[in-house]
Amino acid sequence: MNKTSLLHAPARPATLLRLHPVEWALLLVAVIWGASYSAAKIATQQLPVLQFLVLRFGLTFLLLVPALRSITSVPAWKRSLAGALVLGVVLLAIFICETVGVSLTTASNAAFLISLCVVFTPWCEWLLLGQRPERSALIACALSFVGAALLAFQDGITLSHLSWGDALMVVAALLRGVMVCLTRRQGLRFGLPALTLTAVQMGVMTAGSLVLMMALPGQRWMPLPATASFWWAMAFLVLLCTIVAFFVQNHAAARTSASRVALLMGSEPLWGALIAVVWMQEHLSLQGWMGGLMIVGATGWVLRPRKHST
CB 71: neighbour CB atoms within 10 A? Predict the structure, then answer.
């Protein structure tokens, strides 16, 4: 489809019931990733963070090894592989920040604060892809920022109420914005299959976690937990949160804008908080819920029906 036909194509209302199948899949990812914070907190209470990452991504990589066979069929596959390796390094940094962060704060706080990627992504998209944010994205960013502030300071407006875990989740949110943009640029340039890209990323993250575990002092391989809760959490994180979710995100990133990917998954913090409250018996104040709902409201703003000029 050429540029002219795109400009004059009838506008499709962006209501929830008329989302594209790829966008419905992104909303499912939001639910899955919302639950991941509680699952990761359960797992990291029983195993050190780096060993947990080695195990999680090592198991995922083994399941995805067959997907690597198609990598040489992609034009310019060597440059494509190099780009995928860079994405793997960025993803490793994200998961180190997220996993350490969720171990130092509540699962509900982690779920809401990571959604600040909604704030950061349009600016990353502008800087990395040269795509100026739309006005709706900027309004959504402002709404998300206010919501995150209400959440972070729900116990009082003092920096003493923020933890290192909260700070790491904010860093992870910024890196997520960078990741979405880099993934989109990678997909547009080389077209590496989504499952193959995910397999390469998992290999890089496994190797990187293992190297860090060997290099940092005081790290050693601990006996694996024998509890059902740990292995149920690990199975959920490997099969749904990693293989399914990252396949969907990598598939969708080349088919819609980076800001839309981030904003469509804006319900993730709400699901994360609800699951943390029900599953982990965590508590959120009224202000915390208000902040969370403001973040989720940013998604509704972007999905509202709007007219496109011709």
Answer: 18
